[in-house]
UniProtKB/TrEMBL annotation:
Belongs to the AAR2 family. This is AAR2 splicing factor homolog. Residues 13-147 form the AAR2 N-terminal domain. One of its GO terms (biological process) is spliceosomal tri-snRNP complex assembly. CDD domains: Aar2_C, Aar2_N. Residues 182-336 form the AAR2 C-terminal domain. Residues 337-356 are annotated as: Disordered. It holds the Pfam family AAR2.
Amino acid sequence: MNQELANQLFEVGAFMLFLDAPPNLEFGIDYNAWGIGPLFKGVKLIPPGLHFIYFSTTSKEGIQGIRTGFFHFFESKEILVREWNPEIEDLRDETDLDPDQVERLRSNIREFDRNMGPYPLDPPIYFQRWKKLTGYITPGLIRRILPNNGKVSHLPDKSSDESNIRDKRLGKEIEREEGMEFTHFDLRKSFPKGASGDEITRYSLDKSWLVKDLLDRAYHNDYKVLLGEMQLSFVCLLMAQNFSGFNQWKQLVQLLCSCPQLMEEKPDMFVEFMDVLEFQLDECPDDFFRDILSENNFTGVMLKTLQHNIPGSEPKLVSRYTKLKRFIVKKFEWDMPEEEEEDEDDAPVIVEMEYD
């Protein structure tokens, strides 16, 4: 870090004090992780804003444990205090600590300076990437979706078990136990209550009504907050290997690819959606595409759906989609076939159903 930048952060940078850190711990913040030593006491000169702090223990045999972490919006010059709890191998929040002790620690933060590592800003590209990856996430979104002080845990991939789970209520309870409160919606019920048969057919093909309903109910009619949840769910997957985050991210991507009417009404929203999506895919390791995104041909279906729904009357959407498609083909060395005329066997079948 150059001296000018260090001086700037000295005036506004935040601190995270990490007490009683155990040996053989991997500690990370945003894109950077280290194996820490016995003298480690935390991180200083943290740029104000959103950060993800995470850690995992390593056994004597060198086997790394499950990664756990939390999101936190750091205010300028804030001093966040955390203490290791060896009984549960997790951090104690400030609410679990003696408030007088916390204040003494904050007052004497300079005593820990030599044992605190500076936030890594050299090279600055990693911080720039982090800001781009999380730029739509708001403090309110973190509080609503991660009410346990921003905490997010690793949730093992339960895909092999889900085929045996017939009770959807149980699946929802499992997610709630993990402290995840992602916005709930059902892609199969994308029409208003009491809709006519024609409306059910129309809104089942065009999910615009569902997006508008979600914007009104959950996002304060601000599509940037919706994109923030898309970013948060992706970071939960990328940084914490959280399966609930992956599931929500896929749902949101599928939803936003499926609303041609809203694309005409809010083209800027979908330009920004494709900006977010392209950057997320660019952050994925190559094997991530093969192992996760290619499952059930998710990306191929997503792109085909998006291409089919983009209105030809919106040239900036057509142009942005073309750029996205070229990026995916190049990054993942994927030979995507051109869109063909829809075969009758592939045409959607609309079945009228009764819902409670």
